[in-house]
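Troubleshooting: if your tokenizer reports a length mismatch, compare your output against this known-good record of 322 residues.
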Amino acid sequence: MAASFRLAVAVTCALVLVTACQGLQVGYYKKSCPRVEHIVRDEVKKFVYKNAGIGAGLIRMLFHDCFVQGCDGSVLLDPTPANPQPEKLSPPNFPSLRGFEVIDAAKDAVEKACPGTVSCADIVAFAARDAAYFLSRFYVKIDMPAGRLDGRVSNASEALDFLPPPVFNITDLVGSFAAKGLDTEDMVVLSGAHTIGRSHCSSFVPDRLAAPSDINASFANLLRRRCPANPTPGNDPTVNQDFVTPNALDNQYYKNVLAHKVLFTSDAALLTTPATAKMVLDNANIPGWWEGKFKKAFVKMSQIEVKTGMQGEVRKNCRVVN
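Known-good structure output:
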């Protein structure tokens, strides 16, 4: 899997003009770093078993990486004098995005085994996959293709441009995902990741509690007891996204949507068209249905605008470009 292979793939893809042709393969590191997926999984396990919220953060990290500059590890880059405002300091990511220390630990362990071989972008994808595996109690098993390269560009303003905020309605959501090659069902299925993790009160209080909304009255009262009426950076607590099974990656989210017990406008929006409401019902009621769809949509998301050939590099340190 040398640079010549990556370049050949990039050229072939350019010739056939197939956007899905990204040169990613399951078992990509079989020869060059055979234990990489075990190494990453061991590191993820250590952190997630101590704090399930870190697992939720890793799943969210892949989404936030892939929607901005493609799945290229750009969300990992620290600020520098030349680039003081990278993605990780953008409001959708800072201070809420978690799991950077897991990627650092995994990268360190992988570098010891196979120096200069495995990209940070692939480690993010493996770590998110492993978090899903542990948080689903080993139910969601994903074959994650690899071969992504790390990007050199990271811009806070692009995170604002491309990451769908929690106030989006259904039209906005469909458009945001379509811009990244994902269809309406992918959007509904990936929204199910809101079955884990926490949210700052500021992300939902203004438009869900302070303004009229379809939120369940008793659930709204519960949230009012946990959240200030006017959250500020100095007073902005977090609450579980799913109050029923907060640390389990399962289909409970869709039951919460049906019960109007969800935090975001963008969650409630899934009931506002007949097509998406039917998807919510199926995901809530058919055992195993959502998990099967999630595996496919997760891999599809992990292939957004990946960099190959001369477009990227394999970073030595995930926080800085080479």
